[in-house]
Sequence to fold (252 residues):
Amino acid sequence: MKLYKVLAVVLNSRQMRDAHRILTLFSKERGKIKVVAHGVAKPTSRKRGAVQPFSVTDFLLRRGRELDSISQCEGREFFPGLVADLDKMLYAGHVAELVDALTMDGDPHGDVFVHIVKTLRELDKTADPELVARWFEMQLMAMLGYLPGLSSCVNCGGQVNGPIARFSARAGGLVCSRCAGSAGGISCNRGTVAVMQTLLNWDINKINRLRVSQSCRFQMRAIMREYLQWHMEKLSRSLQFMDKLNSFKPGV
Ligand SMILES: [Zn+2]
Fold:
């Protein structure tokens, strides 16, 4: 069969020659797929809206020798709140980059698809996009088998005592004071560990009830950056851009 249907989120879109684009989709049925979208950059193209990054779209795809291409598409869900807010847009970009970097082409992950859509919906309306992004990071790590160890020491299995633990990206989670010497790591309060575990266990529609202190946010930001960077081999471009913007803001 030369044609097949998928429901997918557009993760990103790259310009090709003429008015063509290469899209990276994350589909419910087949995981990540790269496809050619012919002529969509033309102002008259009726497919334009449905192929924008972060759209959730029904695609009819045609198999090709190298890349499959879009035969038909119809946008199902859009998130106008992302376009109107730079922070939200950057966090959505970060979500897309994480999925692109950490999943393989054609490896189906229906759970990841559902979580991306939930995250985009929440980012669209939330007043706290950073916490929504942290929720997605924790959930994605769990779904892909990269979840950091947050109970006992990941190095020796011993108890992690005291109000402040250390988190080592290289070791894969919390380390006890004895192991921290060799594994290094970032300071991580008990409260921060508790919030990370809550993000893992709660559904996204409950997280706006969480009250998270600035120091906890700061620690989670540092921990997740180091941890994701360890797995992705680089920080997402969206977070790099956010860092650059924040360096111009007074008091951040
Ligand atoms: Zn240890």
